[in-house]
From TrEMBL, chain A:
Keywords: Coiled coil, Cytoplasm, Hydrolase, Lipid metabolism. The active site is at residue 338. It is a peripheral membrane protein. Residues 512-546 form a coiled coil. Residues 126-502 form the Myotubularin phosphatase domain. GO terms for molecular function: hydrolase activity. Residues 589-646 are annotated as: Disordered. This is Phosphatidylinositol-3-phosphate phosphatase. One of its GO terms (cellular component) is cytoplasm. It is found in: Cytoplasm; Endomembrane system. Residues 307-351 form the Tyrosine specific protein phosphatases domain. Belongs to the protein-tyrosine phosphatase family. Non-receptor class myotubularin subfamily. InterPro entries: Myotubularin, Myotubularin-like_Pase_dom, PH-GRAM_MTMR6-9, PH-like_dom_sf, Prot-tyrosine_phosphatase-like, Tyr_Pase_AS, Tyr_Pase_cat, Tyr_Pase_dom.
Automatic annotation (TrEMBL), chain B:
This is Myotubularin phosphatase domain-containing protein. InterPro entries: Myotubularin (IPR030564), Myotubularin-like_Pase_dom (IPR010569), PH-GRAM_MTMR6-9 (IPR048994), PH-like_dom_sf (IPR011993), Prot-tyrosine_phosphatase-like (IPR029021). It comes from Pagothenia borchgrevinki (Bald rockcod). Gene3D superfamilies: Pleckstrin-homology domain (PH domain)/Phosphotyrosine-binding domain (PTB). It comes from the Eukaryota. Pfam families: Myotub-related (PF06602), PH-GRAM_MTMR6-like (PF21098). Belongs to the protein-tyrosine phosphatase family. Non-receptor class myotubularin subfamily. Residues 128-503 form the Myotubularin phosphatase domain.
């Protein structure tokens, strides 16, 4: 609380990003965890909540006659533009937020103050909801080829690796330790995925410390052991996910890549995925394009191309496909690494898993996969997501790219995934929100030291409890699309811009009706009807026995639309910027628009758009509701705004 | 007319056909006056491919000489963007086939086209032709009768060759006036009513450009007609689909625009839309980009951008949005025209009607709209759809305006998946039929030509065929729910997408999406069945049956 210089400012305006003339006036509150904007409009309680931990950057602009503007960019791609009447106040809000959004110590993070009404026992269950050992058991491990090694208990061999690791049966502790000394940060080759069908595996590590000529016998033995663990195969792939030039440059620093001559029966392969700095800049450029106020089609496509974002997504997916095919089609094991083995390696291994194993395309499966390849293997969430004040050069949207790869696959295979895009977006939001303990810290050791299991809550069980919101109604476990290896096309035209994530809060850009929500409603109703029918049939059977035919039918109301399903309000959107400023100069007064309103539909559309957000914390999603209710409740105003656009 | 003189080789055995989404097949190739027929003679499969020669946009031939004898390969590029390949044994046969295809795929004489020969057993030539007529449209619209009348001044097509025989005009303008106005508008396309907005009585009119010319002629009757349109209202808008400069330049060639001084109650809005050759070139570039094997993302995005096709989609939708906004929200009548009034004018007036008028959004409503606003209103299909994106022929009057319309409608359908009563499959079917068809609907450039050819008497009607029960199942949208509201599309670049269903139709990815559509249809059917079976009305009916 000591960081809040000014808890409340009146007469603040919140500008609409797309048409700045359209603004709302209200009061801005700063609390320990949220910035809250409450609109002053009689009768309407319209609130926008922004979690401090989601704030990515703050820009205070020079004061003008109307006030001083404060631009807030959030990590979930929300952009808020406040105009605060007095410079002094703006200054105070700016400084307070700057401090609040950049905690210095882990215990200041939101997850430690987030206290849903859950007791200690339930909390334990929450954290036990996902069990990585169970997933390895599902793969068929341990078995005669792979064993669970205790070599990294207490994180002695590699402090960024998890305690539980699977290694080839023949790998002895001296070999493992020797190999780990020859790898960056001690991240020796270890198992990520095992294919029950053909024994092929995906293993991961960091780069070898080979320099220009160094060798390590134990490391060579380690790879040999991995190869031997796949009895049907006489070679294995070693995939370096970096561009070749980067890998060569690393040799000068005593690092580098495997020399094919020193390792027996490996096929070495570079796959050029760019580094975290390139990815950070690329996303930044793309977001600049997304935030253009009224871009032409050419501006947008050119900007998208220049950002290179889709090119990078394609590179990650291409790499994933290469590995998945090696495992599933050739039955060959693959060792994947990049430099440290926690960014590109995590991306590529997890994408390959999604392609390979239908289990990872289910709700629970995707959670386990993130837990395994990202959290347990030490993707540096704290650094990459900038949870704590730190080095801006460490920040990078590596996990965003993984989630987007999954989304691109969902777009190609609409029936193959149990979850919907909302699931991915919610996960994305919480990776950055710090509301749950899952993504705090950079590795398992840090998380254990922070005592997260005892002090914070787990996102996974929250998502599971609310899974109804995240189910893809088109998912069919028995559909041909769902079986075995996914074979996506990576022709450039298959990659789309993910509007629902990057322009998530620009409601006007999204389809006004959702097929998915409609189908979910239908599905639910179909289920109810089936049950009803079954019970009717049972009754009829009973009646037939009694031979009583004249029982009055219980009337079941039938409407063409699924019960309580109205989209009307969503449709009453306003036309947007077709005018190019012409109506501004027009002397005519727009007439009262014809609108359709009723409270019932208002509620429905609200609950649709709240996207299963956490009502208690009110993060993110709550604020995306406000523009909607504004549209639907204050039409005359929005009408004016639409005409005066640009 | 004897087609046989163009067919030197009618049958070839042992031909290999390669086509997208199918394994290659070996069989017999047969050329007839209108079709290419391939029958797979491999055991177990009796696949037949029947391709309308008219659908072929371009062919490329290449020959190989081997010891075993020469053979040739013909690559066939269709107007529906499919690419087929035929490996034909014997060089001479190959050349003969190629020559036949080249000649027969672009016959000049309309009366020789397939629709005049197509006689399906399921339909009779005496069946109703077309869905509606302007006479019927007028008589159904009681609200119009106060201030609007049906004029048959064009009954013999002498006033305006590209208009239908009947048109709707303000009641206060008589036929003499119309004749004078027609002389003042290019091609005689005087302003006529195309849409009446029931909610506020405002209308959309359309015409061609006024022939003011370099010495700024004006025409009293034209001014009076337009004054009659806005009778009682303070003003109207003219949406000109050209830039101001283009409109001013048009004066040099006899065209022009409505001057402020003569049309003081009308406010002119210039909204430049691409047309003609530029649009055709845009399509060619896009199709080329889609067909490229390159794996390079930058190259794809830059080619997509460079084709400008999505920019044209964006412009069309936002101009239509503006038009609808003028009528629905601003409450004024609008006159739309460009130069000829047969292309971009129809494009935006159609889209605006879809945005505003729920009755256009059903399957029948949409087809009726197309019949009225495109077929009857004189969009020159014959000229515009003579060739598509693959053709090497020199461009003449080709321009994919109708395809652009279908793309825009698809964008609407994406944004409002429950608001339109028809499916993507319908749009794809129309996109194919406009270029090559068994039916007479899109024959000719206007009603006059169709009358002269006896299209009504001698061909079958596509729109009627699309409404037959089995077709209707496939072309209706299972998710459709009627809404009275306007459906305002978003025109942000982020909201518009490449129409994969059409431009990438022959790739396997599109197949996955079709499967998803199928899944949706099944879900709705399943739900519908259950809902019906638990509906009291139907259960009671079945009880009645039992009791009888």
């Amino acid at each position: 609380m000591e960081h809040i210089r000014l808890p409340k400012v009146d007469n603040v305006r919140l500008l609409d990003r797309i048409s700045p003339r359209r603004s709302r006036v209200g009061t801005l509150y700063l609390t320990a965890t949220h910035t809250i904007f409450v609109e002053n409009e009689a009768g309407v309680r319209n609130e926008t909540w922004v979690l401090h931990s989601l704030v990515c950057s703050l820009e205070k602009q020079a004061a003008t006659a109307s006030g001083c503007s404060l631009l807030i960019h959030c990590k979930n791609f929300q952009v808020l533009n406040f105009v605060i009447p007095r410079e002094r106040e703006c200054h105070d809000v700016h400084l307070s937020l700057q401090r609040l959004s950049q905690p210095e110590r882990p215990d200041e993070l939101y997850c430690f103050s987030y206290k849903p009404n859950i007791d200690a026992e339930e909390r334990r269950q929450e954290w036990d909801f996902l069990d990585l050992r169970a997933d390895y058991r599902r793969m068929g491990l341990p078995n005669s080829l792979w064993k669970l090694s205790s070599v990294n208990q207490h994180y002695k061999v590699s402090d960024t690796y998890p305690a539980d690791l699977f290694v080839p049966e023949s790998a002895t502790p001296p070999v493992i330790v020797g190999s780990s000394k020859f790898r960056s940060r001690g991240r020796f080759p270890t198992l990520s995925y095992y294919s029950k069908e053909n024994h092929a595996t995906i293993c991961r590590s960091s780069q070898p410390l080979s320099g220009f000529s160094a060798r390590c016998l134990e490391d060579e033995q380690m790879l040999e052991a991995i190869l031997r663990s796949n009895p049907r195969s006489d070679f294995m792939y070693v995939v370096d996910t970096r561009p070749k030039l980067n890998a060569i440059a690393n040799r000068a620093a005593g690092k580098g890549y495997e020399n094919e001559d020193n390792y027996s029966n490996i096929k070495f392969q570079f796959i050029g995925i760019e580094n975290i700095h390139v990815m950070r800049n690329s996303q930044q450029k793309m977001m600049e394009v997304c935030e253009l106020r009224s871009p032409s089609m050419s501006d947008f496509l050119e900007g998208l191309e220049t950002s290179g974002w889709l090119k990078h997504i394609k590179a990650v997916l291409d790499a994933g496909i290469f590995i998945a095919k090696a495992v599933a089609e050739e039955g060959v094991s693959v060792l994947v690494h990049c430099s440290d083995g926690w960014d590109r390696t995590a991306q590529v291994c997890s994408v390959a898993c999604v392609l390979l194993d239908p289990h990872y395309r289910t709700l629970r499966g995707l959670m386990v996969l993130i837990e395994k390849d990202w959290i347990s293997f030490g993707h540096k969430f704290s650094h990459r997501c900038n949870h704590l004040q730190g080095d801006p050069k460490e920040v990078s949207p590596v996990i965003d790219q993984f989630l987007e790869c999954v989304w691109q696959l969902m777009e190609q295979f609409p029936c193959a995934f149990e979850f919907n895009a909302r699931f991915l977006i919610t996960i994305h939001s919480h990776i950055y929100s710090c509301q749950y303990g899952n993504f705090i810290g950079n590795n398992q050791r840090e998380r254990t030291e922070l005592g997260l299991r005892g002090k914070t809550h787990s996102l996974w069980s929250y998502l599971w409890m609310n899974r109804a919101d995240y189910i893809n109604p088109l998912y069919r476990p028995d559909h041909s699309q769902t079986q075995g290896l996914l074979r996506p096309s990576t022709a450039p035209y298959c990659f789309k811009f993910w509007r629902a994530l990057y322009n998530r809060f620009d409601r006007g850009m999204h389809p006004r009706q959702s097929v998915e929500d409609y189908l979910s409603a239908i599905q639910e109703e179909t289920q109810q009807l089936e049950e009803q029918l079954a019970s009717h049939k049972q009754k009829i059977a009973q009646l037939e026995q009694k031979q009583e035919w004249s029982v009055p039918q219980k009337a079941v109301p039938f409407d063409k639309s699924p019960t309580g399903w109205t989209f009307c309000n969503d449709l009453a959107n306003t036309p947007q910027d077709y005018t190019g400023g012409f109506f501004t100069s027009s002397p005519c007064q727009p007439r009262a628009p014809i609108t359709f309103q009723n409270e019932e539909s208002n509620k429905t559309s609200e609950s649709i758009l709240s996207n299963g957000s956490d009502q208690e914390s009110g993060i993110a999603d709550v604020s995306c509701r406000s523009p909607l209710s504004e549209d639907s409740t204050r039409d005359p105003d929005s009408d004016e705004a639409a005409y005066s656009a640009s | 007319m004897e087609f046989s003189e163009h067919i030197k080789t009618a049958n070839v055995e042992d031909v290999v056909l390669r086509q997208p989404l199918h394994p290659p097949g070996r069989g017999t190739l047969c050329i007839t006056g209108h079709h290419l027929l391939f029958s797979d003679r491999e055991e177990g499969s009796c696949r037949q491919v029947l391709l309308l020669l008219r659908n072929i946009d371009a062919i490329e031939k290449s020959g190989v000489c081997r010891l075993s004898g020469s053979s040739g390969t013909i690559t066939i590029k269709c107007k529906d963007l499919r690419v087929l390949q035929l490996d034909i044994p014997g060089m001479e046969e190959c050349l003969n086939i190629a020559r036949s295809i080249e000649t027969l795929s672009c016959l000049d004489s309309m009366s020789e086209l397939y629709p005049f020969f197509y006689r399906p057993s399921s339909a009779s030539l005496r069946d109703q032709w077309g869905l509606s007529s302007l006479e019927r449209h007028y008589s159904q619209m009681k609200e119009l009768h106060d201030r609007w009348r049906l004029s048959t001044v064009n009954r013999d097509f002498s006033v305006c060759p590209s208009y239908p025989q009947a048109v709707i005009v303000p009641k206060s303008t008589d036929d003499d006036m119309l004749e004078k106005v027609a002389k003042f508008r290019q091609g005689g396309r005087f302003p006529v009513l195309c849409y009446y907005h029931k909610k506020n009585g405002m209308v959309i009119m359309r015409s061609s450009q006024p022939l003011t010319g370099a010495n700024r002629k004006h025409c009293r009757e034209d001014e009076q007609l337009l004054q009659a349109v806005i009778d009682g209202s303070d003003k109207g808008y003219i949406i000109d689909t050209r830039s101001s400069q283009q409109a001013l330049q048009a004066r040099m060639t006899g065209g022009g625009l409505e001057s402020k001084s003569c049309y003081s109650s009308w406010k002119r809005l210039q909204r430049q839309m691409e047309r003609g050759k530029a649009l055709q070139e845009s399509l060619i570039k896009l199709v080329e980009a889609c067909g490229e094997e390159s794996n390079n993302m930058d190259r794809w995005l830059s080619k997509l951008e460079n084709s400008k096709w999505l920019s044209h989609v964006q412009t069309a939708l936002s101009t239509a949005g503006l038009l609808a906004e003028c009528v629905e929200r601003d409450g004024h009548s609008v006159l739309v025209h460009g130069s000829e009034g047969t292309d971009s004018t129809l494009l935006i007036s159609t889209l605006a009607q879809l945005i505003m008028d729920p009755s256009c959004r059903t399957l029948e409503g949409f087809l009726t709209l197309l019949e009225r606003e495109w077929v009857q209103a004189g969009h020159p299909f014959q000229q515009r759809c003579a060739h598509s994106a693959h053709s090497h022929a020199r461009l003449q009057q080709e321009s994919p305006v109708f395809l652009l319309l279908l793309d825009c409608v698809w964008q609407l359908w994406r944004q409002f998946p429950l608001a339109l009563g028809f499916s993507e499959a319908l749009l794809l079917r129309l996109a194919t039929e406009a270029y090559a068809s068994d039916y007479g609907t899109f024959l000719g450039n206007n009603q006059q030509e169709r009358c002269a050819l006896g299209v009504k008497e001698n061909t079958h009607c596509l729109f009627q065929a699309l409404l037959r029960p089995r077709e209707r199942d496939c072309y209706s949208n299972p998710l459709y729910e009627h809404t009275e509201l306007a459906i305002w599309p978003s025109v942000y670049p982020q909201s518009l997408q490449l129409w994969r269903g059409f431009f990438l139709r022959w790739t396997p990815q599109t197949h996955h999406l079709e499967e998803a559509q199928e899944e949706i249809r099944n879900m709705v059917i399943e739900w519908g069945k259950l809902a019906l079976s638990s509906c009291p009305a139907s259960t009671r009916r079945s009880e009645d049956v039992q009791n009888m």
